Amino acid sequence: MDDKLMLMIPGPTPVPEKVLLAMAKHPIGHRSGEFSQIIAETNANLKWLFQTENPVLALTASGTGTIEAAIINFLSAGDRVLVGNNGKFGERWAKIAKAYGLDMQQITAEWGEPIAPDAFGEVLAADSEKKIKAVILTHSETSTGVLNDLEAINKLVKQHGEALMIVDAVTSLGSYNIPVDEWGIDVIGSGSQKGFMLPPGLGFVAVSDKAWAAYEKATLPKFYLDLGTYRKAAAKDSTPFTPPVNLYFGMKVALEMMKEEGLESIFARHQRHKEATRAGMKALGLPLFAPDSNASPAVTSVVPDGIDAEKIRSVMKKRFNIAVAGGQDHMKGKMFRIGHLGFVSDRDILCAVSALEATLQELGHSTPESGVAAVSKRLQQG
Known about the structure:
Radius of gyration: 21 Å
Number of strands: 13
CATH class of the largest domain: Alpha Beta
Strand content: 15-25%
Helix content: 40-55%
Number of helices: 14
Distance between the termini: 33 Å
Number of domains: 2
Shape: globular
């Protein structure tokens, strides 16, 4: 049956019908007064979502574009930086830092494990000359389903005094409580196709006063991703370059939906879905890749023993029209990832785990318990 695909991947995520309908309108002039009103409203609601009083700058870019912007706007060639790397995206930020000539040191952990805050703390404490200019961390490592301890690592960065805290919150912003101003996070980026319930195409960056002071001294080359130009334009309810007008139509509606649900309810829903999904996997006898203590609210990574993960994905797609994500790099074929991020309901979790249970039966894999029963029990707890 056509048009029944169910996205249970960590991005792109499902888009509400109201958002899709808003995006189906005719474009308007991006320099018109009408569009300026939309920018003003969405900018205010982005500040609400990011829990900050500073402007949240919208870029026509993916999450990778926002983190590249976060790196190049506040640093200079030769600056010393620490990059957390325990998955595909931490690895990507290390590559960007190297590409721009930064003196980059990686703080690592194995895929599937969180980075120990003390690993950052030791290096930061030893930096008596304050040469470390930034710490770059992936909060929710999408490739593994691990949630790094941003709050603890950020406190260590604040104790250092000089270094900026630069955060990839691409899959955690909108699914996990990150009080940006309260924690004093300097630069934080995310993308529209994750917790924002939008298609890909917009990236968001919030910047602290401390980071803006660093911007004035930074010398890395930039033009399209020069956040200073976005800051000036945002102050006038405008954009420096042509934005994706219809995505703004959708963003206006999506942010209104999020405000109606409320931050606490959004975070509680993602926590409930994380715990329900993990309970379902345990009941089905499927090993989880990330530990319970550091599991992402956005994505659950599963390493099935004795079954090719790609076969599971294939059957779920062909038989049930449900898409789950595969493993990346050396985990391809060994892992599948269930996204439960953004516009996802209790029904979606039940449906996905039920289809997975049927898939395992079709592949001749016996399960010790009912995954659906385990999910239902957790969801009933609220």
